[in-house]
Amino acid sequence: MSVSLVTVAHVNSPSDLHPRLLVTDLDNTLWDWFAAWHGSFSAMLDRLIEISGVPAEVLEPQIRAVHQARGTAEYSFLLDEVPALVEASGTVPPSERYDEALHQLHSRRRAMTRLYPGVLETLTVLKEAGVAVAAYTESLAFWTEWRIRWTGLDELIDRLYSAPDHDLPNGLTREQVRTKADDEYGLQHTKHLPLPRGVMKPNAEILRSILDDCGVQPWQAVYVGDSLMKDIAMAQSVGVLDVHAKYGQAHEKAEYELLRRVTHWSDEDVEREKELSLRPEVRPTVVLERGFAELLPVFGLDRVSA
Ligand SMILES: [Mg+2]
């Protein structure tokens, strides 16, 4: 069924009573980060195990140690820093020896990174209605910028707040590791503002600073995200209307165990996340059951028809 854009003019709508700002989480709210991560990472891992001969039981903990040191589960130079792969690949760096595994990672990531249905249409309607959009993510700068470009949201997100990237290995410079033209990196329209390194959600102070930055009061903003603990609890503590992207929740899926085994989070973080996900105590004010387009009535706008 085709999706048409319908912006309903609310002639009588006193627009100053409607929210002026949407603060949105990105991963598993606008796109299925987890599915793309799992699909691409597991394909790479399977291929690595096959061609290097290093078993999963050895690889996974070593990968986790690198992810923890770099503060991300999306570390571009991973293979060359996993000791068992360095040993198995001999005189050639693992990233060259096992480049077909990296090819799996990149091609699956491209194929599986897609917006949830209705996201593009909904953000377009919000933009036309004059609502500003700020994105707040825990993912690091490089891959977040890539996902915004890849999914076509560079025009639709006004401000992006993310932590800067991990350091590059062995004193390499950004220019040395870039293989494409400069205009294939970064964002043209979205203003990217850095957050302090290592600050995790929920962080009320960061959300308050985003509101200040955008010049709005808490009651003039709406926050949407898929995590009850990280997104909803944070929005509630700041007095911003919280909206739960229930359709995006991924932590109950069996595949989520792989992320827990190789994640950059500490053991304590993993346990805390697991425990809280099993007995959510946070009750969201608004719930998006099926998709992002259900957000529009919160802004006094009609849903896009599908
Ligand atoms: Mg999320």
Automatic annotation (TrEMBL):
Highest taxon above the source species: Bacteria
Pfam families, A to Z: Hydrolase
GO MF term (any one): phosphoglycolate phosphatase activity
Gene3D superfamilies referenced in this protein's UniProt entry, alphabetically: HAD superfamily/HAD-like
Entry-linked InterPro entries: HAD-like_hydrolase_sf (IPR050155), HAD-like_sf (IPR036412), HAD_sf (IPR023214)
One annotated GO biological process: DNA repair
Protein name: Haloacid dehalogenase
